[in-house]
């Protein structure tokens, strides 16, 4: 049996407390996740059963169930479309939450099931669906449906056009019925999720490293003590003194077992050097600190009534360590809204102002440079009205030509598209004159591209209104007059041509080709029109970050059209090389064009996106954009949001077909980067090329990426986004990554990154639910990182170092005491003090510090993103800093012990009756000095004082004295020993003891103060420099929140110097004034600041 030097309760109670608090905290967060999961899994859905619709939960859907989905609802599983409210069995779907594309996609049912539009008819359906095994590819699906009708089996192929993906949303269709083929974790959306792993912050990893070091110290101290004990007992007089004779059993016991038991006893005696309570304090700090994010009004979005959410509080400090930000584009950087801004018609540039086109500069027939207004065509009924109502000075002939040019341009915009109109909302439109002011109430456009929708809506505002199409007829109203164009052919958009075309027959019988596409693909094919002027205008639009398209047309003779029609028919019915033949025919058709002009559309960015990205760059954070969108769209948005600069050399890794081709291209890019050391580089890579690069050439690809200021990956599948982040995470530098997105397609990368942030946007809540943090807008990322992340990291880094420091101070005197008690394992402190040191006497000051500390003003942190660099790479928890705190702890412990020993230990006349101090009095003296010193050390580290800090700091010292007087002043009947009875009272009755306490506390802290003075004067950090910045010529600010006037007394000057030494201030000194020109926020309403804030100057 091993005789333990301390009570089991002394060691067990802190451990039990730590485990209990941690379990409660983790259980609470798991419960919140459980509630969030139930919202999705418990959503009500309608299923066809027994001839009727039955309501069930989405988690209960099984393969083979026929599900009804209504307009604007989200598909609860992967469904094969059976029928819709339309006769042709088609429906429209937006997959923005899956692949980031906001355009509408058309899906169709097989003819045999499309006619089954009622529940009763569907209940009679007998069919078998065979399909491939579940796979993650969103765009790939193969299967077949065998339908039994009148004892006959009909087999129909199924492709991606028949599959409605879980997470997509039904649009422009009243309702659909579909049969579930993949459910639960077998759906394509779920297969694109990455299995969620437990995330651990860099601080936790550092804590574990430090714990291993302290465990080595613990074992070393125990081994040294055990060896010295047996060395000491080698002499017989010390092995068995006359007052402590051994029993016969002790004399005959095994030496090895005795050595092991003594070693274990020393482990128990010194085990308090391992700060078990550190874990519960860290857990409390993270849990309570996470509420500040939700309470911060600067992270509240008033329009959507959304505040920031914390789903995982374990990563708060990781927000201060981010080195890479991976962001989605659609819905994260942008608002998912396209707006028509400008256009160029026949060499004249126009912009839209209040629904009217305004020309910039002189018109073709005007020498004046003032703005000229062109009245909307919808308000014009004749030429004279145009001449009188506009400021163009034109002759009647020129006026007619002008109308023709604008009319033809906007007709091209209104006809060359794939836009559809809600059938529900077009019933009220008749053949009478149409007024543009009624457009929003009567027409709802749905487009396969957001650009097309914006252009068609703009044309409607200017009087050329696309009313709809029925079969092959496209209806357009110009000046209230309805015109019907027969749609002959659509030449679909493809990434190689980068343009689309339509061939229509005008009411007059003319065959017209309208072409719309990128300027690089349209202008070379033009032989007429204002080509040079338009090219200049397009470049000007692009410099503004606008998305540009050029419009052109061509008129065919009857003979030309017959030749074109024949070639198209042959190419489209070819069984071999169909794509190549179609490309050749398209090229034959789309030539000899007459240029009409160009359009400029803005993909509306979220507020302050450009400023936020620039601030991230200044903070040393690299920003990557990962999107499923097209290359041209993504690059355009990158330019407009400041991710790419116009001065950057944009490198492209696109459309790579093989490993060798990809390797050669990467080599070329690497050489270009090496040869040019001045220009900043940006890299654009698509999904297929990325797959090849990651397969065989990871090192080369990473080398190229590291030398690029910005990287943009387009056409990315959800799992590819996660792979890119994984690649960066495991690179040699091991950087901290952050992923931010708003759709289900972003969930994988959010889970893969060290920190995942979901945007509570328009693409559902999948990203927000699976993220660690959720915010309403991208701009909030700056405050989340630069302020909250900075504070959390500084607080917890100091908390960790301080805990190790105070435990070294606590146990080292116990180790030194063994040299004076023959290593008998006698404790220096009473067991109650051992138990309460970390739980009560020293726990609250560091906990409050870790919640409320603001070493620099939040506004300064946000306005100076470069300060973020000072805490990157886990600098505050470096081995150098750790060794400093540990050495400080050992030095203070030596002062506690030997100071008490030499000042008090040998003096026999300290008590009035001549009684000597006993070992309990000596231990209590050491303990008293220690409690006061470590608490005062925490006060020195505190910069931002509130009444709560004062209460817990000085209250902790007061509580220790009151408790000790109470504990030692009463004979407690339930205690087996009364060692501490009257000890503390006797200690405090000695003037020498008070002198010793004051002297030792001052000695310990004086060394620390001297070091702070030296560092601040000769080696100040950027943060310390920012604390000492002058706000203006009449006000001196010693700290970011401590302001003093020019005229101050001598005493104030001394106080000012002391405040400067410890870099601290009191809220009573604080007053702030914010400028309306501040780049991010005009005020700081953060709950982080627990002091009042004046609007006046200091």
Automatic annotation (TrEMBL):
Annotated residues for binding of ATP: 328-330, 452, 493, 516, 547, 627-629, 715, 721, 745-746
Enzyme's top EC category: translocase
Subcellular location: Early endosome; Endoplasmic reticulum; Golgi apparatus, trans-Golgi network; Membrane
Reaction(s) this enzyme catalyzes, per UniProt: ATP + H2O + phospholipidSide 1 = ADP + phosphate + phospholipidSide 2; a 1,2-diacyl-sn-glycero-3-phospho-L-serine(out) + ATP + H2O = a 1,2-diacyl-sn-glycero-3-phospho-L-serine(in) + ADP + phosphate + H(+); a 1,2-diacyl-sn-glycero-3-phosphoethanolamine(out) + ATP + H2O = a 1,2-diacyl-sn-glycero-3-phosphoethanolamine(in) + ADP + phosphate + H(+)
P-type ATPase C-terminal domain: residues covered: 768-1021
Keywords (A to Z) from UniProt: ATP-binding, Endoplasmic reticulum, Endosome, Golgi apparatus, Lipid transport, Magnesium, Membrane, Metal-binding, Nucleotide-binding, Translocase, Transmembrane, Transmembrane helix, Transport
Subunit structure and binding partners: Component of a P4-ATPase flippase complex which consists of a catalytic alpha subunit ATP11B and an accessory beta subunit TMEM30A.
Main location: other
InterPro entries, A to Z: ATPase_P-typ_cyto_dom_N (IPR023299), ATPase_P-typ_P_site (IPR018303), ATPase_P-typ_TM_dom_sf (IPR023298), ATPase_P-typ_transduc_dom_A_sf (IPR008250), ATPase_P-type_domA (IPR059000), HAD-like_sf (IPR036412), HAD_sf (IPR023214), P-type_ATPase_IV (IPR006539)
Family annotation (Pfam families): Cation_ATPase, E1-E2_ATPase, PhoLip_ATPase_C
GO biological process, one term: phospholipid translocation
Cofactors, names only: Mg(2+)
Catalytic residues, chain numbering: 328 (4-aspartylphosphate intermediate)
Function noted in UniProt: Catalytic component of a P4-ATPase flippase complex which catalyzes the hydrolysis of ATP coupled to the transport of aminophospholipids, phosphatidylserines (PS) and phosphatidylethanolamines (PE), from the outer to the inner leaflet of intracellular membranes. May contribute to the maintenance of membrane lipid asymmetry in endosome compartment.
GO CC aspect terms: early endosome; endoplasmic reticulum; Golgi apparatus; plasma membrane; recycling endosome membrane
Positions annotated to bind Mg(2+): 328, 330, 742, 746
Membrane topology per record: Multi-pass membrane protein
Ranges that cross the membrane: 209-232, 263-282, 784-805, 882-904, 916-939, 951-975, 981-1007
Protein name: Phospholipid-transporting ATPase
Family: Belongs to the cation transport ATPase (P-type) (TC 3.A.3) family. Type IV subfamily.
EC numbers, comma separated: 7.6.2.1
GO molecular function: ATP binding; ATP hydrolysis activity; ATPase-coupled intramembrane lipid transporter activity; magnesium ion binding
Domain P-type ATPase A: start-end pairs: 44-107
PROSITE patterns from the UniProt entry: ATPASE_E1_E2
């Amino acid at each position: 049996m091993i005789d333990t030097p301390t009570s089991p309760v002394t060691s067990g109670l802190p451990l039990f407390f730590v485990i209990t608090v941690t379990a409660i905290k983790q259980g609470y967060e798991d419960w919140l996740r459980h509630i969030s999961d139930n919202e999705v899994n418990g959503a009500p859905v309608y299923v066809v059963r027994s001839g009727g619709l039955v309501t069930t939960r989405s988690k209960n859907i099984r393969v083979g169930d026929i599900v009804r989905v209504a307009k604007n609802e989200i598909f609860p599983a992967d469904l094969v479309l059976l029928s819709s409210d339309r006769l042709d069995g088609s429906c429209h779907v937006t997959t923005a939450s899956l692949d980031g594309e906001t355009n509408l996609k058309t899906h169709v049912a097989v003819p045999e099931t499309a006619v089954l539009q009622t529940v009763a008819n569907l209940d009679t359906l007998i069919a078998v669906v065979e399909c491939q095994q579940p796979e993650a590819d969103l765009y790939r699906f193969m299967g077949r449906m065998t339908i039994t009708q009148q004892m006959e089996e009909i087999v129909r192929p199924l492709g991606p056009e028949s599959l409605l993906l879980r997470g997509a949303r039904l649009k422009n269709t009243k309702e659909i019925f579909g049969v579930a083929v993949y459910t639960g974790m077998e759906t394509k959306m779920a297969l694109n999720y990455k299995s969620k792993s437990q995330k651990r912050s860099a601080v936790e990893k550092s804590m574990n490293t430090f714990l291993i070091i302290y465990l080595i110290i613990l074992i070393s101290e125990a081994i040294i003590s055990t060896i010295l004990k047996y060395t000491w007992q080698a002499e017989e007089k010390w092995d068995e003194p006359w007052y402590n004779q051994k029993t016969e059993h002790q004399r005959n016991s095994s030496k090895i077992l005795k050595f092991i038991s003594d070693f274990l006893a020393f482990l128990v005696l010194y085990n308090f050097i391992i700060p078990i309570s550190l874990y519960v304090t860290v857990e409390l700090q993270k849990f309570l600190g996470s509420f500040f994010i939700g309470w911060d009004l600067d992270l509240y979005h008033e329009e959507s009534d959304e505040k920031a959410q914390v789903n995982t509080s374990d990563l708060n400090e990781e927000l201060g360590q981010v080195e890479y930000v991976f962001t989605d584009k659609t819905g994260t950087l942008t608002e998912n809204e396209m707006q028509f801004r400008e256009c160029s018609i026949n060499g004249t540039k126009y912009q839209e102002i209040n629904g009217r086109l305004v020309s910039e500069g002189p018109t073709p027939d005007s020498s004046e440079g003032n703005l000229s207004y062109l009245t909307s065509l919808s308000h014009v009924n004749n030429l004279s009205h145009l001449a009188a109502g506009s400021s163009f000075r034109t002759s009647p002939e020129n006026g007619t030509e002008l109308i023709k040019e604008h009319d033809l341009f906007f007709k091209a915009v209104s006809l060359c598209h794939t836009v559809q109109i809600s059938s529900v909302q077009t019933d009220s439109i008749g053949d009478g004159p149409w007024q543009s002011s009624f457009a929003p109430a009567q027409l709802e456009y749905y487009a396969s591209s957001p650009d097309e929708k914006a252009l068609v809506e703009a044309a409607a505002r200017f009087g050329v209104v696309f009313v709809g199409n029925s079969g092959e007829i496209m209806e357009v109203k110009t000046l209230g007059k309805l015109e019907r164009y027969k749609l002959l052919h659509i030449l679909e958009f493809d990434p190689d041509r980068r343009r689309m075309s339509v061939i229509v027959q005008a009411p007059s019988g003319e065959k017209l080709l309208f072409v719309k596409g990128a300027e690089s693909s349209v202008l070379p094919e033009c032989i007429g029109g204002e080509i040079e002027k338009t090219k200049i205008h397009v470049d000007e639009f692009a410099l503004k970050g606008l998305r540009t398209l050029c419009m052109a047309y061509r008129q065919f003779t009857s003979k030309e059209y017959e030749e074109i029609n024949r070639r198209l028919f042959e190419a489209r019915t070819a069984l071999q090389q169909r794509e190549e033949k179609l490309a050749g025919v398209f090229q034959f058709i789309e030539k000899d064009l007459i240029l009409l002009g160009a359009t400029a559309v803005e993909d509306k960015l979220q507020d302050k996106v450009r400023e936020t990205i620039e601030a991230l760059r200044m903070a040393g954070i690299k920003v990557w954009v990962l999107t499923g969108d097209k290359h041209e769209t993504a690059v355009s948005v990158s330019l407009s949001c400041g991710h790419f600069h116009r001065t950057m050399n944009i490198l492209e890794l696109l459309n790579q077909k093989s490993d060798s081709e990809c390797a050669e291209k990467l080599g070329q890019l690497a050489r270009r980067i090496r040869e040019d050391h001045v220009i900043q580089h940006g890299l654009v890579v698509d999904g297929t090329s990325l797959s090849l690069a990651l397969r065989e050439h990871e090192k080369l690809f990473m080398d190229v990426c590291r030398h690029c200021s910005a990287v943009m990956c387009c056409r990315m599948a959800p799992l590819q986004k996660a792979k890119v982040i994984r690649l960066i995470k495991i690179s040699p530098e091991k950087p901290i990554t952050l992923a931010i997105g708003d759709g289900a397609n972003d969930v994988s990368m959010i889970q893969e990154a060290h920190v995942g942030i979901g945007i509570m946007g328009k693409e559902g809540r999948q990203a927000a639910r699976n993220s660690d943090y959720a915010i309403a807008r991208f701009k909030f990322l700056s405050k989340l990182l630069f302020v909250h992340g900075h504070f959390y990291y500084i607080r917890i880094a100091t908390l960790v170092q301080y805990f190790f420091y105070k435990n070294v101070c606590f146990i080292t005197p116990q180790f030194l005491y063994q040299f004076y008690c023959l290593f008998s394992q006698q404790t220096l402190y009473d067991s109650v003090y051992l138990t309460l040191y970390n739980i009560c006497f020293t726990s609250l000051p560091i906990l409050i510090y870790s919640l409320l500390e603001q070493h620099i003003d939040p506004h300064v942190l946000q306005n100076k993103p470069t300060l973020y660099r000072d805490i990157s790479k886990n600098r505050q928890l470096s081995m150098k800093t750790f060794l400093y705190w540990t050495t400080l702890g050992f030095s203070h412990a030596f002062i506690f012990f030997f100071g008490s020993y030499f000042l008090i230990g040998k003096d026999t006349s300290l008590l009035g009756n001549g009684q000597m101090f006993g070992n309990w009095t000596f231990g209590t003296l050491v303990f008293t000095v220690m409690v006061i010193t470590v608490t005062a050390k925490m006060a020195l580290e505190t910069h931002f004082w509130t009444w709560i800090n004062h209460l817990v700091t000085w209250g902790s010292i007061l509580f220790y004295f009151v408790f000790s007087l109470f504990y030692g002043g009463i004979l407690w009947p339930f205690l087996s020993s009364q060692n501490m009875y009257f000890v503390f009272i006797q200690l405090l009755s000695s003037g020498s003891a008070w002198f010793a306490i004051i002297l030792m506390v001052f000695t310990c802290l004086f060394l620390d103060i001297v070091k702070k003075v030296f560092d601040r004067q000769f080696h100040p950090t950027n943060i310390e420099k920012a604390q000492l910045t002058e706000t203006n010529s009449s006000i001196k600010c010693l700290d970011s929140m401590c302001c003093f006037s020019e005229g101050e007394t001598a005493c104030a000057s001394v106080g000012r110097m002391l405040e400067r030494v410890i870099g601290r201030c009191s809220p009573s000194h604080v007053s702030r004034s914010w400028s309306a020109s501040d780049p991010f926020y005009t005020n700081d309403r953060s709950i982080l600041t627990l002091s009042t804030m004046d609007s006046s100057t200091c």
